Amino acid sequence: MSWDWQRSAIGKSQINAHKNGELRVGDIALLINGLPYEAEHFGDTGEPLIRIRSLLNTEETTRYSGPNLTDYRVTPKSLLIGMDGDFNVGRWGQNEPGLLNQRVLALEGPESTLRWIEYCPPNTLSIINDLTYATTVKHLSSKQVSRVRVPWPGKHRVDSIVDRLDRETAEIDTLVAELSTAEELAREHHGAALERLIVTDGPMPSELRRHHPIRKSGTSVNGAPWPAEPGEPGVLKTGAASRREYRPHENKAVIDPIEQARLSTPVEADRVLVNRANTPSNVGAAAYVEHGSDDLFLSDKLWSIDFQGVNEYFAFAMQTRLYQDQASQRAVGTSLSMQNLPYDEFLSIRLPVPSVERQRSICATLRDEQRLINASVSDLDRAIALAKERRAALITAAVTGQIDVTAKRRPAAEQLEDDIKELS
């Protein structure tokens, strides 16, 4: 389908420009609302259907095989806005044209104009989000989007600025990707050392029940959606162990005195914290608890286990692929999003367990390795944060006229690389 840009977009911008150099989004882009496609026609066949979830890449593409409601199709050039919740902005990431579902808005226009709208600060959709009242889910209308004002220095200058920003931000994005890859490689190096020391060079695996574990668990209590302050009672969430490291801040404050009275098992030091209920990839996740707390308590979905041996070693061993595969295979449950690991099945998991002396030696080696990795990852995290900060600052300065990105100047990525070197 072809659009008459002169009539629907560009032509209007020349006569509707405000004196302060601003235009409304509806002046420079054509807004198209999604349609209410019937769910009974959803499935694995037909045309792709772009839904709000599609902007978050959280699900497989839904397809629609029902009646055709419009000739309009979304393409990768379309700018998309989710009209509920957080008002996410994105693009359709597939080459195959797709249908636009209700509660998703498409903006069509010249590519440089759509890119300009994406770049323009402040994030006006976030402002609308903050000002929109709703008891459950916030809703945005296409009329609100059309009235959003953006800076407009003229089409020719917009094209120049967008072209420069596309090149500059692409270079920064490449740098961020390289830093992220280095961070992942550092973690993989630690994982390889762990697999070698525990699995490859370890003895024959034996069932965990042979190492006389003593298990404690907690109770299910109602907590607040925020973490407990120091000195206040809190109950650990499953996230306290799901990343294979103990994260005490992953807790819920317990405010109600009746609920506080139901808290039963405080977090003890030198224990293995095991997540017995979680997603298939995280069920059975374990972490070593070095320091306990009288104010943090276990929930019914967490076990605190004391093995006969070096608990830290068992926590390291539960980070291996050997353990994770067995835990996933033994998990049960009808829900695809939540699985449970029965304790008797947990005890049947087999892991290499050497002598206590060797356990201590392995732990010392892995601790030293982890310290080096943590230092490296910390530096990389700071560099990534700086890169993202500079990227945002560059965009803001360019579209608000604070800097002239069309002038000859040193590329932002080169300056950023120098600044990152100064961090270390």
TrEMBL record:
UniProt keyword annotation of DNA-binding present: yes
Keyword Membrane: no
Residue spans of biased composition, Low complexity class: 223-234
Superkingdom to which the source organism belongs: Bacteria
Annotated segments matching region Disordered: 214-234
Gene3D superfamilies documented for this protein: DNA methylase specificity domains
Keywords: DNA-binding, Restriction system
PANTHER family given in the database record: TYPE I RESTRICTION ENZYME ECOKI SPECIFICITY SUBUNIT, TYPE-1 RESTRICTION ENZYME ECOKI SPECIFICITY PROTEIN
The protein's name in its UniProt record: Restriction endonuclease subunit S
Species the sequence originates in: Brachybacterium conglomeratum
Source taxonomy: Bacteria, Bacillati, Actinomycetota, Actinomycetes, Micrococcales
